[in-house]
Design goal:
The structure holds two protein chains of two kinds.
Chain A (H helix, E strand, L loop, with lengths): L4 E13 L5 E14 L3 E5 L6 H9 L6 E6 L2 E2 L9 E4 L11 H11 L4 H14 L15 H12 L6 E5 L7 H16 L3 E6 L2 H7 L2 E6 L2 E7 H5 L14 H13 L14 H14 L15
Parallel strand pairs in A: 3-8, 3-9, 6-7, 7-8
Antiparallel strand pairs in A: 1-2, 1-4, 4-5, 9-10
Helix pairs in contact in A: 2-3
Chain B lengths: L9 H6 L8 H28 L1 H20 L3 H17 L3 H17 L7 H35 L2 H5 L5 H35 L5 E10 L5 E8 L8 E4 L5 E6 L2 E8 L2 E8 L6 E4 L1 E5 L5 E2 L13 E4 L5 E6 L13 E7 L1 E4 L9 E8 L10 E5 L4 E7 L1 E3 L5 E3 H4 L7 E7 L4 E5 L4 E5 L4 H27 L4 H16 L1 H9 L7 H9 L12 H23 L3 H4 L2 H6 L5 H27 L6
Antiparallel strand pairs in B: 1-2, 2-3, 3-4, 4-5, 5-6, 7-21, 8-9, 8-11, 10-20, 11-19, 12-16, 12-21, 13-20, 14-15, 14-19, 17-18
Classes of the chains: A alpha/beta, B alpha+beta.
């Protein structure tokens, strides 16, 4: 296996059986995947499509019925691979009677980290996820977003090379979602490999280099996001400050060249962008918002 | 005190065992080998059935090699982290409730524990230590059986097993964490119960001045006074005072009091010896029957419990103890001879005078020369510990003067002490531990700690079994499994008896057959294919029971509460044997827990 391949699955499949060994459900049909070092890889699919099962098989939380998953050249059941892995489960399954510091210190000790390193790492991560003021509070007092953030911190405690995120934006508000996506891009910038599964398509589109689309336990599509989403026979032009005359001229030009003008109007922003701009504005100028101005591309 | 099994020296117990048994270590290795092979076969059959012959073999091979490799990769830091987590979890689950229950028991115990008992210390110690044992075992059971299943339920285990944590570390961490919590609870309970027993039973008396009478020697000179104390705590003592007015309230009810002169009046100080730790040196017991013929046991008086056997009165029937390593060093100047302790079970075939002791005799004999002392008569009260000394100067059967150590101890340090019942129609019952040479008492506090250590050993074994079971089973099922282990462990001798002892009515299937055919227990079954099948199934069943008995912890042997209750020192050999057993269970259950854990899909 090449050094650049972080995860490889070979005909990986999973069948859930009942106590008597009778097949209940085929959660994953033979899956062949290769995930490269440094990429952000998304597993996409509706609920019950096999995304989480795939992640669990890669982590060794489930045993494959057939095939195998190789992580850093080791079988998924080999715990030594976990030295280089960080995992954020679908919900942050943490010990709620511990506070943030104790939680991260505990997980740091599981990586056999010396006390001094642990202390520094815990401090840095708590600040990074914005829980500095709540570091002494028990997790049972945390909101869902805060729990998610401490969950992310525990996944990063060992400065992992491979981070597996199961529904990373689940339960987060738009700001939290944006921060999570920024974090994923920052991790990518640091050369780390990120594998995430989500059914929130916009999130995946924003951060993933490559995606695999699963449905009913079967791989339906695999490739680069930009390639998969490119519509080859449509050309998109975006321009600023065009006069009506100029727009008419462009329409004529398209017509002269036997092109079909599909749409030419002012684009709308995303609701996420609008929400974030309002919150930013509110933080800068507290109080009631004076009037709603038209959104420009500079906003 | 009842001691049904001889306490072997530690290394003999470990390597070679007693008569008719093998040493603990070879036994452990044999059981481990048997269980290992059984697990291997079972694992392969299941893996082969699911994945085919070759892949099944590969899975089993990898499971074993990974297990061995992971054993060497165990990190103390990770284990301690997991142990710390288990401790925090235990506190969160309000284990201190056990302490509250314990204190409530202590507060109300004195309502029910009567101080007019013949030996109140025995009653109090037995009660508090038994309560401590059950509470600690209960807590150990609940903590160990529900912890891991709860982690599976809340899925917090996901964030543990996706770290480089070896499964063995999770098992060991849980065992150590809960052991630490249990140790803290046990230490608090131990200290409180020790203080409770001492404070509850401590008392003093006044001197009953009316009862005091002068005592004179043969020349008529005053040598002191005799009398008795006032009645306190439902008892009074005989008093012996010297001419200065100092002296003792003598040892009734298991304790004594010192009496000193204060302001011209005798003052009885607090009780001494409420808690004792007698250090016995046991001998070997044989018998002579009524015709004087040597026998291994005395006669049965019809009691189902065969621990003691009896000698009949006014015959040649004799109980003979042979002691080794007897020398002058054992002589007590205070008591004027060789200190011994003697417990006699008196079996009366006619009641005689109620409350009157039955007369018996003690003789001392040199097993080498046959030189024998004259009879030393004594009054035997049923089941009381009679502490006396064999006088150094004795008269022989030929009226010659004998020195106990020079004339009656053989060249290899052996001494025989013979006990007979002198009253016709009455019987004395003895077991080997009923007579002993009394060495200097050990510290009662240290002895109490040793008893608490034996409770600790039981607790750790329960934790190890509970944690191992919880790696595979759900919480309630793991608890039931562990409870079955504890219950069978407490009744292990009975369980083994059922499996291999003589049975009236046969095994379970044969008994059922007899029930439905209304056949009595004694008649032989007719020889037919059906009865042969019944006996065959019973044989398999009994073999399974015997196999199970090999891994059952014998809690009745592990408990040393009776030692403290009856005022005997817990021998160091027994302490080390118990600790070794504990270690064996922790090792065995950790390995079992590891492999059970490995077979389990965490995310199912």
């Amino acid at each position: 296996m090449s050094e650049d391949i972080v995860i490889q699955t070979r005909a990986l499949s999973k069948v859930y059986r009942d106590f008597w060994g009778r097949q209940k459900v085929r959660a994953l049909k033979p899956l062949d995947l290769e995930i490269q070092r440094g990429e952000v890889f998304g597993l996409l699919g509706p609920n019950g499509s096999g995304k989480t099962t795939t992640i669990k098989l890669i982590l060794g939380l489930l045993f494959p019925t057939e095939g195998e998953a190789i992580v850093f050249g080791k079988r998924s059941t080999d715990v030594s691979k976990n030295e280089r892995i960080g995992y954020l489960p679908e919900e942050s399954y943490l010990y709620r009677f511990l506070n943030a510091e104790e939680t991260l210190d505990f997980y740091g000790r599981l990586f056999d980290m010396p006390a001094e390193t642990r202390r520094e790492r815990v401090d840095a991560l708590i600040k990074m996820v914005g829980l500095d003021k709540a570091r002494k509070r028990q997790l049972q007092e945390y909101s869902k977003g805060m729990t998610r953030r401490i969950g992310l911190a525990q996944a990063l405690i060992n400065d992992p090379e491979l981070i597996l995120l199961d529904e990373p934006t689940s339960g987060l508000d738009p700001i939290g979602t944006r921060e999570m996506k920024d974090m994923i891009l920052r991790l990518k910038g640091e050369g780390k490999t990120v594998v995430m599964c989500s059914h929130l398509l916009a999130d995946v589109q924003d951060v993933c280099d490559r995606i695999a689309i699963l449905h009913q336990g079967e791989l339906k599509e695999l490739g680069r996001v930009d390639t998969l989403l490119t519509v080859a026979d449509v050309t998109q032009i975006r321009a600023r400050n065009l006069s009506p005359e100029c727009q008419t001229e462009i329409r004529d030009c398209i017509s002269r060249h036997q092109g079909e003008l599909i749409e030419m109007d002012n684009p709308s922003t995303t609701l996420e962008e609008l929400f974030l701009s309002i919150v930013r504005d509110s933080e800068a100028r507290p109080g009631r918002r004076a009037n709603v101005e038209p959104v420009t591309s500079d906003t | 005190m009842v001691l049904e099994h001889e306490i072997l020296p530690y290394f003999q117990w470990l390597w070679s065992g007693g008569a008719g048994s093998i040493g603990a270590l070879p036994r452990f290795l044999l059981v481990a080998l048997g269980l290992g092979l059984l697990g291997l076969m079972l694992g392969y059959v299941i893996a082969a059935a699911r994945h085919g012959l070759l892949r099944g073999g590969d899975i089993v091979y990898r499971t074993i090699t990974n297990g061995v490799r992971e054993l060497f990769e165990t990190s103390p830091r990770r284990v301690m982290a997991l142990a710390g987590l288990a401790m925090k979890e235990a506190w969160r689950r309000r284990v201190v409730v056990a302490l509250v229950v314990f204190f409530i028991i202590l507060i109300f115990a004195s309502w029910f524990l009567k101080k007019n008992h013949q030996d109140p210390a025995k009653l109090y110690i037995s009660f508090v230590l038994t309560a401590t044992t059950y509470l600690v075992l209960g807590i150990a059971l609940l903590l160990s059986a529900f912890s891991l299943p709860n982690d599976f339920k809340t899925k917090t285990i996901y964030t543990i097993v996706t770290k480089p944590v070896r499964l063995g570390e999770i098992v060991l961490g849980r065992i150590l964490g809960f052991t630490a919590v249990g140790t803290i609870l046990l230490a608090i309970m131990g200290v409180c119960s020790y203080v409770f027993v001492n404070r509850s039973l401590d008392h003093t008396h006044g001197i009953d001045e009316v009862s005091l009478k002068n005592v004179t020697d043969a020349d008529g000179a005053n040598i002191g006074k005799d009398g008795r104390t006032t009645l306190e705590n439902y008892h009074r003592h005989d008093v012996e005072l010297d001419t200065n007015g100092d002296g003792f309230a003598l040892g009734n009810f298991g304790h004594t009091h010192k009496i000193v002169q204060r302001g011209g009046k005798g003052m009885v100080l607090g009780a001494d010896g409420i808690m004792r730790a007698r250090v016995p040196q046991w001998g070997k017991l044989t018998f002579l029957d009524r015709q004087g013929v040597p026998k291994e046991r005395g006669i049965s008086v019809g009691s189902e419990w065969t621990y003691r056997s009896f000698v009949d009165g006014s015959t040649q029937a004799t109980a003979i103890w042979t002691f080794d390593k007897i020398s002058e060093a054992l002589n007590s100047e205070e008591e004027g001879g060789l200190p011994i302790g003697l417990i006699v079970r008196v079996f009366r075939t006619h009641k005689g005078t109620i409350g009157k002791a039955i007369t018996g005799s003690i003789q001392v004999r040199n097993p080498e020369t046959g030189l024998t002392s004259d009879l030393i008569p004594f009054a035997a009260l049923d089941a009381k510990i009679d502490e006396r000394a064999i006088p150094r100067k004795l008269t022989g059967t030929d009226n010659s003067e004998l020195d106990l150590y020079k004339d009656l101890v053989s060249s290899n340090g052996q001494l025989e002490i013979r006990v007979q019942c002198l009253e016709r129609g009455q019987y004395f019952g003895f077991a080997q531990p009923d007579m002993y040479i009394r060495m200097r008492d050990a510290s009662p506090m240290v002895n109490y700690v040793k008893v608490c250590l034996s409770i600790w050993v039981q607790m750790v074994i329960v934790i190890a079994i509970g944690v191992a079971a919880s790696t595979l089973l759900s919480g309630p099922v793991a608890m039931l499994f562990t409870v079955s282990f504890i219950v069978l462990g407490f009744f292990r001798p009975f369980f083994v008896d059922v499996a291999q002892g003589p049975q009236y009515g046969g095994g379970p299937i044969e008994s059922f057959y007899r029930l439905i055919t209304q056949m009595n227990m004694i008649s032989a079954l007719e020889d037919s294919a059906v009865t042969r099948l019944i006996k065959g199934v019973d044989w398999v069943y009994e073999s399974l029971m015997l196999s199970l008995a090999q891994v059952l912890p014998d809690f009745s042997k592990l408990s040393t509460v009776d030692f403290a209750a009856y005022g005997f020192n817990v021998p160091a050999d027994l302490v080390f044997q118990n600790l070794t057993m504990c270690l064996a269970y922790v090792v065995g259950m950790s390995i079992l827990g590891y492999f059970l854990f490995r077979t389990r899909e965490v995310a199912r």
